[in-house]
Fold Threonine dehydrogenase and related Zn-dependent dehydrogenases.
Amino acid sequence: MGNRTPPLVMGHEFAGTVVEVGEGVNENLVGRTVAVNPLSSDGTCRLCRAGLANLCSDRTLIDIHHPGGFAELARAPVANVYPLPEGFSGGARVGALAELLANGVHAVRLRGPGEAVEHTVVIGAGTIGLMCLQAAVLGGIPNVAVVEPHEARREQALGLGAHAAYSSGAECREALEEHTEGLGPDLVIDAVGAKATRRMAIEELVRPGGRVVMVGLHDDATTLGFHGVVRGQISIQGSYAYTARDYEQALEWLVDGRAGIGELPPVLVTCLVFSGLMHLDVLSDVAGNETIVHGLLECLTQEGQQELYGPRRKPGLQFGGAELSDVVRGQGLELVSSQGWD
Ligand SMILES: [Zn+2]
């Protein structure tokens, strides 16, 4: 995540109420609850014309190039603002999930035209994994399984439509043998991006001639055995963000209730856990953030949370004159790695 330059207000997964519109914008938008697609492209370059607006070299993202949603007020282009239906009970809380689900919609759509997919495995049932899973199910793939080491996350995945949930790649591979003539899944989506999950996807799970879609960005350099990729004719596909079409599909599924995030703790903690703390290691890069992080820790403790994701990724990080990990433990919180794949 070396693409954010402090000082910067982050937050690209957000929704809210319109309080003011710019010149020439329909004033009826004021007061409406809207979901915000944070990604803008020029719409004119060769990539945009080819339907790859998510890869436009002039693209900008609210939270990288413009101040984001961790603020009382944020600004967005009107073309990126999607009013939720009047009286929609899910409100901004559901609207804020559209950006996440759009990533899943995009990843699932990247399989080739006419590419038959009967069995898909999503690695990782964190928020993005849960969204990829739902996009695969709603996209019509008949068998969608997840691999996830945390039991609570496996349960969440099953509650959101996964047909099976396994604790390891080996367990998944064994269970799928019978249903795939011993070959493995047609499509594997890596929603983690750790070295271990990339190897699991390519070397352990995907069938010969199958496709692996890489969504997660946990690690960068990864060593892989490429003889198997060549001899197995495996397609390795990166997936970055989403197009406006993906975002609109995601929002439609969320608004009509076919997709979601399941049961959640109270809204304050939800916001912190799903947005802030997943990025605590990034937040801690931003100058002058001690107050923010201490505030988050105190909120979590008061709400009875026991786990904190993120800071173990930066061992030795100093915070207010102490190790960040000691500060966290001092609040009675357990540290867990951001993905649990170490
Ligand atoms: Zn462009």
About this structure: The chain has three domains: 15-96, 102-238, 267-336. Residues 265-288 have pLDDT under 50 and may be disordered. Residues 102-238 form a domain with the Rossmann fold fold (CATH 3.40.50.720).
